[in-house]
Amino acid sequence: TVEYIGGAAQTVSPLTYGGLKISNPSGVTLGGNATVNGALTFSSGVLATGPDTLKLGSSATITGAGPGQYVSGNLERTFPTGAQSFTFDIGEGSNFTQVSVAFANITTGGNLTATSTPGQHPSISGSGINSAKDVNRYWTLTNSGMIFTTYSITFTFLPGDVIGGANTGNFVVRKFNSPVWATTTIGTKTATSTQATGLTSFSDFAVGEQRLDHLV
Fold this sequence. Notes:
Strand 21 (171-177) and strand 22 (180-183) form a beta hairpin. The protein is globular. The chain is an all-beta fold. The N and C termini lie far apart (50 Å). It has no helices and 25 strands. It is 0% helix and 58% strand. The strands form four sheets. Strands 2, 3, 5, 6, 8, 10, 12, 13, 16, 17, 18, 21, 22 and 25 form a 14-stranded mixed β-sheet that branches. Strands 11-14-20-24-23 form a five-stranded antiparallel β-sheet, with no helix packed on it. The model has no long low-confidence stretch (mean pLDDT 96).
């Protein structure tokens, strides 16, 4: 395990790590694509990927993540076959907005990359979501090589992300299958999270109240 510790911002070398520990309150930034095959541990500080990607092996774990301690940017994870689940501890700026994915069955393993972007989706107007009462961010998940049956996904947002006094109990999830949006089946909802179930592909996702004029 390599630990990055200090008071000044540091650059994480683009290497393959058995374990990686972030213990720098000033944060660290990737100097290129890096891979962690064991434990990614957060003690303090954010790991910012910039244009690069932090890749986690199929046995990799994340511990200690939370507000101020997460991956800001592109987080990729390798998934083996079978029923698999993983929580992507991602966010941006000072916002921790993780997303959890649970696969019913993966028949061909591959990689999944997740990012969280502040602001409304550029195509939110066609989503069927009320853009005056939604979550002011969207998530992007990209599949590389995986073949699977279905999955469920849970998006976590901050109370400050919710605009227009939106009622989170009425939230829906819309999936952007460019150039159109698709509806999803909603699962569990809380004041800071919304789940969609029975999905069969990945893309951009937005969360918010449904427009009254939108047909399901």
